[in-house]
Design a protein that fits this description.
Blueprint: H1 11-24, E1 28-37, E2 43-51, E3 58-63, H2 71-83, E4 94-100, H3 104-108, H4 134-143, H5 151-167, H6 169-177, H7 196-208, E5 214-227, E6 230-234, H8 240-250, H9 271-277, E7 282-291, H10 295-311, H11 317-330, H12 335-357
Parallel strand pairs: 3-4, 3-5, 5-7
Antiparallel strand pairs: 1-2, 2-4, 6-7
């Protein structure tokens, strides 16, 4: 079977395929319904499939859709791994837990953010100690112009260009993508309270991670790096033992906090849910980040999507064009890209199982 069969055109199709594949492979399934609906009135949910015993001492977690639309890639990988028998490769006393669509609303509506414009991977934090991202505040007005083709946009582009010329592209990337909590209408907004997705994932972690002593987390992402390449990004946040374990298991692993990743350092990432729910277990958390388009095009698509949902018309020609732009920024439609991302995930999952067993 061609790898393209595992990937889907809509969230509803992806969810149906995932649930069917997981059920056929003997998974114990549980769903957490989302309070809102998809664009065609379809149900939304965070779906969980457990392969093996919940009491297993070792656990591999593979999750998708943290950033909504990135779930097109992650879901296809999860379905392919199930269909091709990864479950049959589980060592003794090891279970596999798959989380399908951390952010089902963003997946269904083809947005990176949640229903409240929150970047979920910036939301897992104590909001009583959140500082101000001053650099982002400096450029926020340039990122959310009132028009998309008129004088406000022209002035905004000029402001961004001057910022980059003065401070450099790395500073611009860090300012924008590092996360901010003061501009709810802005980009990479981490929120000012816990989202539905965060609260739900924390409940999932409490339910499934009580017995494991060693856990590997592989969270599937797209939008950074060379096209089709899967950068393995440790989210150790200066936990030396975890970083060293990831290096030993996977080989080349990058770290934002150590300055070796294409990703800027960020806080509030989803691994916090597992760390809080797993007790004293050893966690080795890695994001697989698959490249799509050049960074400027990816960021431009997010800016366009943000403008569309603030000021535009989803059902207009312009709205459809922007949505196509966003999809291209986070999902590769061609077979080679799909094969590359699947192969990288399979290799990494097998290395995670070896690492857990070792």
């Amino acid at each position: 079977m061609s790898v393209t069969a595992y990937f889907s055109d809509t969230y509803a199709e992806a969810r149906e395929k995932f649930l069917a594949s997981a059920k056929a492979a003997g998974a114990a399934l549980k769903s957490w319904p989302h309070p809102l609906k998809g664009p065609d009135g379809e149900d939304l949910a965070m779906d969980v499939a457990l392969f093996g015993s919940k009491d297993a001492k070792r656990m591999l977690i593979m999750s998708s859709g943290t950033h909504g639309i990135e779930g097109f890639c992650g879901s296809g990988i999860q379905i392919g791994l199930i269909e091709n028998g990864l479950v049959g490769e589980l060592p003794d006393d090891t279970c596999l837990l798959m989380i399908h669509a951390h952010n089902p609303h963003g997946f269904a509506w083809q947005r990176r953010v949640t229903e409240d414009n929150v970047d979920l991977n910036r939301n897992f934090r104590d909001f009583g100690s959140v500082g101000v991202n001053e650099a982002y505040s400096d450029i926020h007005p340039f990122l959310v112009p009132g028009d998309w083709d008129g004088p406000e946009r022209a002035a905004a582009d000029k402001g961004v260009a001057e910022f980059i010329q003065t401070r450099g592209m790395p500073a611009f990337q860090a300012a924008v993508t590092g996360g901010q909590h003061d501009h709810p209408d802005g980009l990479f907004f981490g929120g000012q309270k816990a989202t539905w997705s965060r609260l739900t994932l924390e409940e999932v972690a409490r339910e499934y991670c009580g017995k494991a002593t060693d856990i590997a987390l592989l969270d599937l992402h797209t939008g950074l790096g060379p096209r089709g390449y899967g950068e393995l990004i440790s989210v150790d946040m200066d936990r030396d033992d975890e970083y060293e374990r990831a290096q030993a298991w996977y080989g080349e692993v990058t770290s934002p906090s150590r300055g070796s990743s294409t990703s800027a350092p960020i806080t509030g990432t989803i691994d916090a849910a597992w760390r809080d729910g797993m007790g004293d277990a050893n966690l080795t958390a890695v994001a697989i980040e698959y490249g799509t388009l050049p960074p400027a095009e990816v960021l431009g698509s997010l800016q366009a999507d943000n403008w569309l949902h603030l000021h535009g018309d989803l059902n207009s020609d312009q709205g459809r064009q922007i949505k196509a732009q966003v999809r291209a920024a986070f999902f590769g439609e061609e077979e080679k890209w799909k094969q590359d991302v699947y192969d990288r995930a399979l290799e990494t999952a097998r290395n995670a199982l070896k690492g857990l067993a070792g």
